[in-house]
Amino acid sequence: MADGDSALESLWVAHVDSQSRCVHVSRYQGDEGGAQFPLRTIIADAAAHHSAGIVLAHNHPSGDPRPSKSDCVSTRRLAAAAEALDCTILDHLVFGGRDCSSMRQLGYL
Q1: What ranges do the domains of the chain cover?
Q2: 3-state DSSP call for residue 36?
Q3: I need a surface site. Which of 8, 19, 51, 70 has the fewest CB within 10 A?
Q4: CA count, 13 A, side-chain hemisphere, 14
Q5: CA distance 59 to 94
Q6: Are 88 and 109 in contact (CB under 8 A)?
Q7: Can you tell me whether residue 93 is helix, strand or coil?
Q8: Domain 10-102, classified CATH 2.40.128.110, yes or no
Q9: Ramachandran bin of 95, using left for φ above 0, alpha for ψ from -120 to 50, beta for the remaining angles
Q10: What 3-state class would DSSP assign to 12?
Q11: Cα separation of 73 and 99, whole Å?
């Protein structure tokens, strides 16, 4: 992923308005084993920026682009919290090597 060490996991969070224009982007650096998933911070940012939608993206240093169980659980929790703000999780992309998985396309969202 851009501006990051592919040996370390990073989570990118993009907030968009009702016309799908990006209004805020955050990056959370992790380590080889994972990146933090700061649910409260993401929700606070969504409220502050009046986000209509959120797109998440993170990399798997292992090269496996399939979402982990932890990825799915965290994303579902965020989706439930965001719903209270009338905000939708548009997608969560998982990059592994040169491949990418979309949680939306996989039916997890």
Answers
A1: 10-102
A2: coil
A3: 19
A4: 13
A5: 6
A6: no
A7: strand
A8: no
A9: beta
A10: strand
A11: 22
Are the CB atoms for 92 and 67 separated by under 8 Å? yes
> 25: closest CA among 8, 7, 10?
10
Q: How many CA atoms lie within 13 A of 44 on its CB side?
A: 5
Q: How many CB atoms lie within 10 A of CB 36?
A: 13
β-strands 88-96, 99-102 pairing: antiparallel
* Six-digit token string for 75: 């994303």
pLDDT value of position 5: 59
Residue-level pLDDT at 1: 46
**Contacts with 98 (C-beta within 8 Å, 6 or more apart), sequence order:** none
The one-letter amino acid at 67: P
Task: Please list the pLDDT of the chain residue by residue as tens digits (109 residues).
Answer: 455 556 889 999 999 999 999 999 999 987 767 778 899 999 999 999 999 999 999 999 999 999 999 999 999 999 999 999 999 999 999 999 999 999 999 999 9
CA 18, 37, 64: angle at the middle one, nearest 5? 100
The predicted structure's pLDDT at residue 30: 78
